[in-house]
What does this fold into?
Amino acid sequence: MPCSRFTTPPPEAFTITASEPARPPRALKYGDTFVVLDSRGDISTSSADSAGLFHEDTRHLSRLELLVNGTPPLLLGSNLRDDNSAFSVDLTNPDLMDGQHIVLEKDRVHVLRTIFLWRGTAYQRLGVRNYGDHAIDLQLSILFDNDFADLFEVRGAHRERRGTATAKLHGDDRVMLAYQGLDAKMRRTALNFDPPPDELTVCAAIYNLHLAPGERRPIFLSISCDRTDSLPAPFLRSLLASRREMREVTSERTSVVTSNERFNEILCRSAADLEMLMTDTPQGRYPYAGIPWYSTTFGRDGLITALQMLWWSPEVARGVLRRLAAYQAKMTDPLADAQPGKILHEMRGGEMAALREVPFGLYYGSVDATPLFVLLAGLYCERTGDIETIIELWPAIEAALAWIDGPGDPDHDGFVEYQRASEQGLTNQGWKDSHDAIFHADGRLAEGAIALVEVQGYVYAAKRMAARCARRLGRDVAAKILDAEASLLAERFEAAFWCPQIDSYALALDGAKNPCQVRTSNAGQVLFTGIAAADRAVRVANELLRPSFFTGWGIRTVAKEEARFNPMSYHNGSVWPHDNALIALGLTRYDCKRSIETLFGGLFNAATYMDHRRLPELFCGFQRQRGQGPTLYPVACSPQAWASATPFTLLEASLGLEFDPFKGEIRLRNPRLPEFLDEVTLRDLRLSSSSVDLRVRRHGDTVSLDTPRIRGDIRVSIVFSS
It folds into this structure.
């Protein structure tokens, strides 16, 4: 997830009404701008609480409703394009009455509403057509408003004071909404209408249309955020430019085609969602964490998403690493939980962050982002052979390692731990950051400086990978020290975290070094890092696929027998796709391929039930029932970056993909395919300057491999190991 949550109100204090909105939300994003609409294309009180047009953590439009003769039109259907480039809505008129008489029968007027985002502007085209056999007169109204609410206000935070808002007409076709914030920043929203409406106020545009039989009339609306000094480019030119831009960005990316059309749809949606969440930054492209609440730079989320994408889109990791290195903490700041060498957790650009009403302008309250940064840097080097980038990043890597061995381990017991430095910070600072996520077997919450089980694994893997990087840079002494530190950590880890009573690793050590003897999915992430002893890793793997954990859809975060288990909770019994993905990578490390097949199949089946075939941030951990889909979690982000990357990670784990750019080799170690996949083709899989097309076919419990096309010097093989 992005796991960041502010403390006022607490993470779980989302307002849930008695019933869900009648019109489910739809989301589009471009850069630092996103919009949440309902299925009619409206932003309205009947939409989700997150509805609005947002730019840089501020809502720039809180209402946008279309009426026909003062009445909401009827929804025929709405569709999000497969590539997320636009949202289209088909509407028609209801029976329009004048007293007791019908003046216009339903289904005579068709309105095609097309919406997309590009470069800080929301574009909308209304195509109005009369399908009747006689001329009609019609009034079409567009109602709009804005509160310039900070994103944290939209999420429920209360503010005693706010800035000053104004609304003014600029000619007969333009409305300017403005807000002078308490941070002295002026935020503006410009609404531009083409053609000019017959009536225009600061909250409504009205068109009085006379349409002959078969006549079409287009109406264009553009809504620009902050960039209000000039008119945006026309609708069609902007739409074509945005699609051309998307094609150029994705043209060299590895593509995947399989024998299963439903899985192809899942992969297509995942790739499109990841591309939509990508944002160009001065340091490179960065996957923003999710919509609506996390459309910004998150350290942990960006690092894990880049790790999941590494095999098929390694350039994402380069952008993530460079951006996080640029914002690495240089000094101690208790309010921001910052210490020298620490990697950013969350970045916010709204008014409340600027005023430090929330601490998340640049916030570092994440215990795992720093070792994950070092780990990703090493994995990126092993995937690409890009030594130049590692040389560029090496000072940041060294600073991160210094934090791990210094402020990250304040009692010098060899384990990295966290404790927030101020009351405004996050109570829990691992990926499970709900206030009640870290607890003992009797349900008591863990107190004091907490050492999470998976974080020790991240540190272990980070030091192993940093040692390999050091050797490639000719720093052999540093490499030997790092390897020795990793080996010592593994010994201490087994002694401190293994709990024979639960036949698993403890969730954490509390401030008194007492283990939280709770069976959780965190132990599964330990397998991904390689710190676990082989015999114990297999025992953990077997447990995770039993009914205590495995719902039939995926692995729960907490076993159902534990004290705080709740399948409807955020972190104490739900199913998180990205968590399952990292567990799958751990299963392949310890060659538990049959378990991967089971896990892969469960999440594939879950995705087939999801709206748009899109895996959300999380869903409820109820046991699978015959003939029923999974139970959704009402405020889960969707799309969400590391959930979107999960199908690709599961495929990587199944195929056992390994890359060696220094030898020019791609290996498939102990590959297997689940029953729902007979064939998988990877096109343009790159290694340095070479590329290859791979085709893997399933034959019962084994697979065959062929390479229809190879460009450059590259070798591909299947490796079977015991």
Q: What stands out?
A: Residues 1-22 have pLDDT under 50 and may be disordered. The chain has 16 helices and 33 strands. Residues 12 and 434 are 7 Å apart (CA to CA). The radius of gyration is 27 Å.
